[in-house]
Design goal:
Mean pLDDT: 79
Number of strands: 20
Strand content: 15-25%
Distance between the termini: 21 Å
Largest sheet: 7 strands, antiparallel
Structural class: alpha+beta
Strand order of the largest sheet: 6-5-4-10-9-8-7
Radius of gyration: 29 Å
């Protein structure tokens, strides 16, 4: 029995007519800064304002024309076996993607398309390199329908959800369009404003400082002096500097502390703003189709990750948040992570919040009874030697060339820190094997754990470099779809034991019968 498609499917269709308006607005947005820069560059000429107006009108006209032609020449067909896209204004290009090659279907709404009730539908093939198929832009109800269609085909069902008639659903109404494609799900993880605020405080960022510096560099002609002239800076700071020096050492220290606090406040505020805009409304649900994650304030994303396509898990953290017990959980999926399609399913959570998500994905959290094996002590020693040698060489050069011999002690401090770091970090560099999983842990300032299912691994490779061959350890590379899994410094006999155990799990599995 053939699947039932809508009447429009199989025919060449264009994206929503409002999409070329959205494209034009977004392309014009990218041209605003060059136009403003050109105006200020020509502001001293008699035709500066006239030239800016003419240039702006020309850019607007060309942008609108190209957006309209691009929309007219872009068509897509939804067939029974594949989705076909044809595009190109002068030369035509056609691309067909079979349904079995589509790993995930995600919906993304940037701010401008969202105002028009449109959504970008992204068919992820997992091939990377910009090979994913995108339809920009469709009504929300149509985007939901296409996603449901691909789900039905992957599930092997005989009937797909028919297209919703425009008279029945208002695609610009987020409530109606959400109801058209939603399905009941079990909430697994949610971040409300208090959690987002706390998360943002750990996302310290000085990106705003970099942006201001970049704008200053591009628009330096608007400043009253040359920012690269050190003499002008000295003259500018001479007055405040003399005034601050007259207040005494204590006032100078207080001034430095206040400046540091101000910079810290800017970094924290930037982190909070970035986190709120990216993670606003974060909700992870377990649905009959898999994991559904929704997030975003200005750019809203809605991603569904089928459970059977989750190949491995990563529990990661950062240096400061690790001390407070905060971690992030990430899925390693057949569809590679890219931008808004990132498969982070719990960005800021405690261990007890992550555990239910791990079990829902068919894995088990690391148990206290696991038999962890650390890396070879020979590997630890070799790493200390290799990483500390450059510091020692620099120390010798500095001691010979510097007028004061003790200057050579400074690089030795770096060598000592490297040695201490390797000695302390060795206890976190370990791996384990249980009946169903292989686990690897690394990092001492911000430890991370990777968990992979033994039956979903493709291969096991033992690699030894010249030093490892003589020292009796190896790196074990596990073939993992959608990611990488490597364990370094494993004693050779242990590496061979791992290969035998994992290959037994792989060879004992009939992959043609896996769901």
């Amino acid at each position: 029995m053939k699947r039932i498609f809508s009447m429009q499917d199989g025919e060449a269709r264009r994206t929503d007519p409002k999409s070329f308006v959205v494209r034009g607005v977004m392309s014009l947005r990218n041209a605003v800064f060059p136009m403003v820069a050109a105006f200020f560059a020509m502001r001293d000429t008699s035709f500066g304002l006239f030239t800016a107006i003419v240039a702006g009108a020309a850019v607007l006209s060309i942008s609108s024309l190209m957006s309209y032609l691009g929309w007219r020449r872009f068509t897509y067909r939804v067939g029974e076996e594949d989705i076909r896209v044809e595009q190109g204004i002068v030369s035509r290009a056609a691309r067909s993607v079979p349904y079995e090659r589509i790993q995930d279907v995600s919906l993304e709404q940037a701010l401008i398309p969202r105002l028009f009730g449109l959504v970008e539908v992204k068919f992820e093939t997992g091939s990377g390199g910009g090979e994913d198929l995108k339809l920009s832009y469709l009504p929300e109800a149509e985007g939901e329908r296409l996603r449901e269609l691909v789900r039905e085909i992957h599930a092997g069902e005989t009937a797909a959800i028919p297209a919703a008639a425009e008279s029945d659903i208002d695609a610009s109404d987020p409530v109606q369009s959400e109801a058209a494609g939603s399905e009941p799900g079990e909430p697994l993880f949610e971040m409300k404003p208090p959690r987002l605020l706390k998360f943002g405080m750990f996302e310290f960022s000085l990106a705003v400082v970099a942006v201001v510096f970049g704008i200053t560099q591009q628009l330096d002609f608007l400043l009253p002096f040359d920012i690269w002239d050190l003499d002008e800076w000295q003259e500018l700071l001479a007055g405040p500097g003399n005034w601050l020096a007259a207040l005494g050492p204590m006032a100078q220290v207080v001034g430095a502390v206040l400046a540091s606090i101000s910079l810290l406040a800017v970094g924290v505020a930037t982190g909070i703003i970035r986190t709120l805009t990216r993670e606003w409304g974060f909700l992870l649900e377990k649905t009959p189709r898999g994991f559904r994650r929704r997030r975003g304030l200005f750019t809203k994303t809605d991603v569904v990750m089928p459970v059977h396509r989750v190949q491995a898990l990563e529990i990661v953290t950062k240096m400061i948040r690790y001390r407070f017990g905060w971690r992030a959980l990430k899925f390693v999926s057949l569809a590679q992570d890219a931008g808004s399609s990132s498969h982070v399913v719990a960005p800021f959570a405690q261990a007890e919040e992550i555990a239910p998500i791990i079990r829902a994905a068919g894995f088990e959290p690391p148990a206290d009874s696991l038999d962890w094996h650390r890396a070879s002590k020979r590997h630890r020693f070799d790493r200390m030697v290799i990483e500390s040698t450059p510091f020692v060489l620099v120390a010798i050069v500095v001691a010979v060339a510097a007028p004061v011999v003790w200057f050579g002690l400074l690089p030795l401090i770096g060598a000592a820190l490297t040695i201490v770091g390797n000695l302390y970090g060795w206890q976190f560099h370990k791996h384990a094997l249980d009946a169903r999983q292989v686990l690897s842990s690394d990092g001492y300032l911000s430890p991370s754990v990777k968990i992979a299912s033994r039956v979903k691994l493709h291969s096991v490779e033992i690699v030894q470099g010249p030093i490892a061959q003589r020292r009796g350890y190896a790196t074990v590379n596990l073939g993992l779809a959608g990611g990488a899994f490597a364990m370094s410094g494993v004693p050779l006999e242990r590496a061979r034991q791992l290969r035998r155990s994992i290959m037994e799990s792989i060879s004992a599995t009939d992959f043609s019968k896996l769901a």
